[in-house]
Give the backbone structure.
Amino acid sequence: MVEWAYKEMLVIDTLFGFLFTRFMAGKKSGQRGRVPSVRFRIKDKYTIHLHHWFLCSIALVGMYLIDISSTFLHGLVYGSIVQGFLYPDFYKFIHRQKDVGSTDSQKI
């Protein structure tokens, strides 16, 4: 009985995490969301984009390593990871700058 309740709560919390992340993130790929993306430049030639699903995956591993067993936190992170995989460029981390002064970038 307890295990079913745990699974049901995890599903509900994952759905909440998905909807919360969808609300906070950009509606389309490349569009700025309510929370800015984690990006940094390397030698004005490349931009590295650390996607939220990637950062949440690292957080999830950390939660397991330090034994955080909150279904709410796990669900929030799972939902965020799933939502991140829905972007068509979810696998692109490195973007090459077209020219030094341009704000546009070419995805690698």
Residues 70 and 88 are 30 Å apart (CA to CA).
